[in-house]
UniProtKB/TrEMBL annotation:
Residue ranges occupied by any NADP-dependent oxidoreductase domain in the UniProt entry: 23-265
The protein's name: Aldo/keto reductase
First and last residue of the signal peptide: none
Gene3D superfamilies named among the record's database cross-references: NADP-dependent oxidoreductase domain
Pfam families: Aldo_ket_red
């Protein structure tokens, strides 16, 4: 079923009914303190209602501060964080969650993810996330960078299915088989690095579409993500880019254009390989 795309505050339901805003601000590499605080405030001022951070980003405190200073009610902001590799395991994940919540100064987190599938640890880590979910400390739980074989290994032992899988996703890494698997199991696909770490501006197909629609290449890819049913969290600390990345609700790509962007797939990663990165 095609997912409805309306405006910057639009949401899609996760498997448990929790609504996730389909467009958010990523804050990877945003420096804690004034930089990330201001980026979060600019995003919320522009209408964003989804902020994605992680323990390893070392900016959770600034994210929490930005949300508080924005004046936007807490219940209107969807906040994601992630447990880092060295904290994985049952007890250590629970401790890591407590530390993230202390830094964010939140009582309840909207979404908590396992950042990478650390071999031999992610099942115990998932058990901890299930406990946090059962305790009402997090509204939704999921994973990040889990490939199909990781999910196939996790699901038989899971009491609760992951509601989200956040993955590297862009025209060079489409992974249609993994997308289909996630749809089959009610797992929402989410994109990190949607703008290809700047390489979007080198793609002739995307530049041609940008010229056709009077949009930027970045806006074309954000729109492609959304029309493909993929939650996306482009990152920026620049106000103009934060605003521009969200100006994607006044045009629509055709089915042929979506397929043309899909055809750029090279199975090529710009980030780490989930099968070799976690230690």
């Amino acid at each position: 079923m095609e997912k409805k795309i309306t405006d910057i505050k639009g949401t899609w339901p996760l498997a448990n009914g929790v609504e996730i805003p389909y467009l958010g601000l990523g804050v990877w590499q945003a420096e804690d303190g004034a930089e990330v605080v201001q980026a979060v405030k600019w995003a919320l001022e522009a209408g964003y209602r989804h902020i994605d951070t992680a323990a390893v980003y070392k900016n959770e405190a600034g994210v929490g501060q930005g949300i508080r200073e924005s004046g936007v009610p807490r219940e209107e902001v969807f906040v994601t964080s992630k447990v880092w590799n060295t904290d994985q395991g049952y007890d250590s994940t629970l401790r890591a969650f407590d530390e993230s919540m202390r830094l964010l100064e939140l009582d309840v987190l909207d979404l908590y993810l396992i950042h990478w599938p650390v071999p031999g640890k992610y099942k115990e880590t998932w058990r901890a996330l299930e406990q946090l979910y059962a305790d009402g400390r997090v509204r939704a739980i999921g994973v990040s960078n889990f490939l199909q074989h990781h999910l196939e290994d996790l699901l038989p032992d899971a009491q609760v299915k992951p509601m989200v899988d956040q993955l590297e996703f862009h025209p060079w890494l489409v992974q249609p088989g993994l997308q289909a698997y996630c749809r089959q199991h009610g797992i929402q696909y989410q994109a990190w690095s949607p703008l290809m770490q700047g390489k979007v501006f080198e793609q002739d197909v995307v530049n041609d579409l940008a010229a056709k629609y009077g949009k930027s290449p970045a806006q074309i890819l954000v729109r492609w993500d959304l029309q493909r049913g993929v939650v996306t969290i482009p990152k920026s600390v620049k106000r103009a880019h934060i605003i521009s990345n969200a100006a994607v609700f006044d045009f629509e790509l055709t089915a042929d254009e979506l397929a043309y962007i899909d055809s750029l797939d090279r199975h090529e990663r710009l980030g780490p390989d989930p099968d070799v990165f976690p230690k």
